[in-house]
């Protein structure tokens, strides 16, 4: 098992760094079709929830609930999909996807439905800054 937290290269390649919460690295999936944020506990070698300590599990839940509520309020979504699958990327990570009736994949899952549509550079910067404000991450600390 690893002793130093490292973000899986596939997550790094597919996302934009938003910042770090008390436990989790916060990432924006680089797909402009959906408001899609991923929490990755900064704990080395973790692939499953049960590998976290009870305190870490509670912190992950707290960060997830806070993120989900703020995303749904901000984007006025119809449903929030929260999932920790890990079939492609084993590192424990939790997806938070705001869904809308009639979005490109509705009502099915977003995975593998359409090719990703990356954010343009200006839109990406604006979305990351907005998420930092929304979830109260101080970008000066990153």
Concise account of the structure shown:
Helices cover 30% and strands 20% of the residues. It is α+β, with helices and mostly antiparallel strands. It has one domain (9-137): 2-Layer Sandwich (HIT family, subunit A).
Describe the structure.
The chain is α+β, with helices and mostly antiparallel strands and 142 residues long. It has a single domain (9-137), classed as 2-Layer Sandwich (HIT family, subunit A). Helix content is 30%, strand content 20%. It is built from 3 helices and 5 strands. The longest helix has 22 residues, at 54-75. The protein is globular.
N- to C-terminal distance? 26 Å
Would you state the CATH class? Alpha Beta
Give the proportion of residues in helices: 25-40%
Strand order of the largest sheet: 1-2-3-5-4
Number of helices, counting only DSSP H or I runs of 4 residues or more:
3
Q: Give the strand tally.
A: 5
Uncertain runs are none
Largest beta-sheet characterization: 5 strands, antiparallel
Calculate Rg over CA atoms.
15 Å
Mean pLDDT: 94
CATH H-level homologous superfamily name? HIT-like
Task: Describe the secondary structure blueprint for this structure.
Layout: H1 9-14, E1 15-20, E2 24-29, E3 36-41, H2 54-75, E4 79-83, E5 94-99, H3 121-134
Antiparallel strand pairs: 1-2, 2-3, 3-5, 4-5
Using brief descriptors, characterize the structure shown.
alpha+beta; hydrolase; 5 strands; HIT family, subunit A; single chain; 142 residues; five-stranded antiparallel sheet; HIT_Hint; HIT-like; hydrolase activity
